[in-house]
Design goal:
Elements (H helix, E strand, L loop, with lengths): L20 H32 L19 E3 L5 E3 L5 E7 L4 H16 L3 E7 L11 H11 L5 E3 L1 H6 L7 E5 L5 E6 L4 H12 L1
Parallel strand pairs: 3-4, 4-5
Antiparallel strand pairs: 1-2, 3-6, 6-7
Length: 201
């Protein structure tokens, strides 16, 4: 006669331990793989999204599509320099004490070495109208410390010509002298590279 359980049903036979183990391991492995894939997608979407979702802060700056004002000025070494004709240029208006300028300097230095047809021009605009002033010697030290290849300039008046009210302010100019990118503040590397490639195209 079968023995009844307290619920009135027949007593269940005990299953061998570990009977569901392969299924549990498979589910755990699938879950771990899914987590890794989701994490990788999040990383890639963030990297790509930095440039894709970026909106330049160009309010008050010279408009994209307009001609960059021509100029002739002096480097901190006393050499005369102008906006290059027939060559793309990246004009970086900065102040040596500006933390955002310091953050971007390594990337600017890489551009100055990687793109042979691009002229990077570092232009300090910090005079008595700014929180702190720069000197030609400080400008030279800044450019040399970061290994930026290109003329180092101290010319606050040039900043006014280009409507610079904050640092860093970057303009990318194509071979014909047309502004293809303008931004005040830090920007993702991919944004600058897109402008540079357009200017060189």
């Amino acid at each position: 006669m079968a023995r009844n359980t307290p619920s009135g049903g027949k007593k269940r036979e005990a299953k061998a331990p570990g009977g569901n183990r392969p299924l549990i391991l498979a589910l755990a492995g699938f879950t771990a793989l899914a987590i890794v894939v989701i994490a990788l997608l999040a990383v890639f979407s963030t990297r790509g999204g930095e440039a894709g979702n970026f909106t330049p802060n160009d309010q008050g700056l010279l408009p994209v599509g307009s001609r960059a004002p021509e100029f002739t000025t002096e480097t901190v070494g006393g050499e005369r320099v102008s906006l290059p004709e027939g060559r793309a240029a990246m004009l970086v208006f900065f102040a040596t004490w500006c933390p955002h300028c310091q953050n971007e300097a390594p990337t600017i230095a890489e551009f100055s070495r990687e793109y042979e047809d691009l002229r990077v021009m570092m232009i300090s605009v910090a005079d008595e109208n700014w929180p702190e002033t720069d000197t030609p010697q400080e400008v030279r030290r800044f450019v040399e410390a970061y290994g930026i290849q290109g003329p180092a300039i101290y010319d606050p008046a040039l900043g006014r010509t280009y409507r610079v009210t904050g640092t860093p302010t970057v303009y990318v100019v194509d071979r014909s002298g047309r502004i293809v990118g303008a931004h005040s503040g830090e920007a993702p590397r991919e944004v600058y590279e897109g402008w540079i490639q357009e200017a060189l195209g």
